Structures are given as structure tokens and as C-alpha cells.
Amino acid sequence: MDSSLQRVNPALDEKESALVADHEEEALATEEEHHVHLPNPSLWPVLLSVAILVAIIGLLFIPDAPWLTLVGAVFVLIGILGWALEDPMAAMKETYISSPQLAGELAKFQIGQSIIDRDGESLGTVQARLGNYILADRGVSP
Transmembrane region positions (predicted)? Predict the structure, then answer.
């Protein structure tokens, strides 16, 4: 139920109500286009939590091992700086693993090999061999 004053007001003429409806549709379209992008996985939080744990253990047992607190504090500082200076939106490196156990039809396709169709046009290059399929990068091969 829309209870905005623009919808309820009878003084609005048809042009103004059409403009309001268009504005609402544009707002909905921009909301639908927005997506959540999560940062890449990182080991810095794990290192930082282990360093904090070591520093706290060092504080609890300070008469026995005072050096443990100092080592933990240094790693806490390194963990904070590493996590803060990491680029969370950097593109992840794609890795493809080739399996030497593949045989049969797919054995004739090597990674990096250019692929052409039966008309002689280039389809791209082989990026990976997966089960009964190959992953080809579309584009012009060198």
C-alpha cells in the first residue's frame, strides 16, 4: 500500500503523476542494479587473532615468559598493518589445474593450444581440461 502524499493528492494532474511514477520506477531500477561485493578471502584476520592470543597468554604468564608478550605485540602490529593495507577489491588470480590422468579424446588438447572450428575460424585457446569438457578462452589466438 502506497501512502505517499503524491499518490493521495487529487490536485496532481496526469503529467505530474506520470513524472512521479517514472521517478519511482527509476529509483527501483537503481536499487535492483546495486549488488553487494564482498572482499576477497584473506589470511590477515587469522594471523591477527593468533597474535592477539599469544600476546594475551604472554600477559597472563608475564613472570615466566615476558618475551612472549613482546613477540605477540609485534605480530599484532604486523597483522593490523597487513590487513589494513590489503586491497580487498583486487581481482582474484584465476588458476587452472591440468590433470595428467586425462586420456582419450581430451588428451589431444593441450593448455594454451589454439582451437579452430571446421571452417578454419579461430575459437580461442584452451585454458583447462575438465572431465569430458575443455574450457576455451574466446578471442583471437596469437
Answer: 43-61, 67-85
